[in-house]
Structures are given as C-alpha cells and as structure tokens.
Amino acid sequence: MIVKVGDYVLLIYDNRRRWLLKAEEGKKHHTHRGVVDFEDIIGKPYGTTVLSNLNHKFYVVKPTPMDLILKMQRATQIIYPKDIGLILLNTGIGPGSRVVEAGTGSGALTTILANYVKPSGRVYSYESREEFSKIARKNLEKAEVIDYVELKNKDILEGIEEENIDAVVLDMATPWLAVKLAHNALVGGGHFCSYTPTIEQAQKTVKELKNENFIDIRTQECMVRDIIVEEGKTRPETRMIAHTAYITFARKIV
Fold it and tell me: CB 251: neighbour CB atoms within 10 A?
C-alpha cells in the first residue's frame, strides 16, 4: 500500500516518540533528531524507512485505529484501548451490528465501534453537548469512519429512537437511568454495557439491570502492565495502567 497525498501516517522514531501526521506536498516535520521531508514519504510504501536531514532513521507505518484514538483531539477523557477490547469481546459487536452509544465525547469509542461494524452496520451515538459532537465528527472524519456513524445531538435519557439494536454501550454519569430505555431498544439477547469510574455507579446500574429483565450481569475491570524485555534484565514496568473504570455487561431477555 502506497502513501498518497492526504493519507495519515504514523512516523516512528522509537517506542516513545511517534507522530500521527497527514501527508502533504511540501510539508516537513521537525523533530529533535532532524527534519523529515514528506517528499521522501509520499509515493513510498508503508513500512518505509526514511532519514532526517541529520541522518537519523524514522519509520513510516499505517496508523491503526488505536493510534488514531490515542492521538486524536480530546474534549473529554477517552475510554482506554484496554477497556475497549473488553467491550468489543463481551458484546459481540462486529460487521453488520447496529449499536447505540452514549455519550460520544471525543469519539474514541465511537471510532472503534464504527471500525468494527462496517461495512453494513451502524453506530447511533448520542451526545447532549454540541461542542463535543463537533470535535467527535472531526475525529471520525480523520479516521475515515464517519459514514458508519449517525451523530445525534441529544440526551439519551430523552429516549432512544432506534429499535432492534444489537448492543447499547453507555459512557455517562447516570447509566442506571437509561437501563429501561436500553431494554426497550435492544433485540432479544441483545447486549448492554456501561462504563463507570466509581463502584457506586456500577451498583446502581446492576440493581436496575436486575429489575429490568437482564441476565448474565457481570462487572469487570481491566489492568494492563507492560514488560521490559531485555536479555538478562526482563522485568515489569514500574508504572502501569491500573483501574480506569468498572465495566458492567448484561443481556436482555424478553
């Protein structure tokens, strides 16, 4: 695959220094290791090694959806990739799925959901704050998944307009208030998911799920720690991404 004008590339120097950049004619990227000229990138295949004017190596690769969300413009805190992986696997979201999401925020989860439901599925994303929706739209356009998303500038507690939805995923302060709405919108056996920072939010949500005919109710958290792998001195990183949220899953029965 060749880098074309207008494509986004991930320019990597090492594990810590990397940049998400748009390929533009005449553009140069300045770094602590010299200047990288996009004339050396455009028209070359992904995976190319380029040299800065100081003769340092940089690597040009195609950004993954995770690269895009970690580098996106943020109006709010995003859901971490480690948690998004759990959400996808526990809800079975995939090509053709119809998913309701609230709230959109900066569009990180929306981007990943859209990437998984395409080409025939759709994400209906509710966000009450218009300024967040505008930022999310730009991020979704940048990720080239806007065609699979319907952004709705509306509080989901005013009602879910869609029916026969495969999954409802909530990242909001009061998800328990949306449980009944989610039950009404879901297909039989459809999946519910809520992402809550505090255990009190999870407790209220679980209580409401039990009241509204949901089964297979589970609350999880995910912690990830990188490992430094070097011969003779392999060890865990001293820092890790520990608790980020409680993620509650359930299935609708009729």
Answer: 20
pLDDT truncated to tens, each residue of the chain (254 aa)?
A: 999 999 999 999 998 899 999 999 999 999 999 999 999 999 999 999 999 999 999 999 999 999 999 888 888 888 999 999 999 999 999 999 999 999 999 999 999 999 999 999 999 999 999 999 999 999 999 999 999 999 999 999 999 999 999 999 999 999 999 999 999 999 999 999 999 999 999 999 999 999 999 999 999 999 999 999 999 999 999 998 899 999 999 999 99
Nearest alpha-carbon partner for 212 in 155, 254, 161 = 254
82 contact partners, CB below 8 Å, separation of at least 6: 222, 223, 224, 241, 244
Backbone φ/ψ region at 55: left (φ over 0), alpha (ψ -120 to 50), beta: left
Angstrom distances, CA of residue 192 to CA of 180, 212, 230 = 11, 12, 42
CATH class of 67-252: alpha beta
Domain ranges of the chain: 8-63, 67-252
Distance of CA 10 to the CA centre of its chain: 17
**Among the CATH numbers 3.30.750.24, 3.10.330.20, 3.90.740.10, 1.10.1040.10, which is that of 8-63?**
3.10.330.20
Element (H, E) at 109: helix 108-117
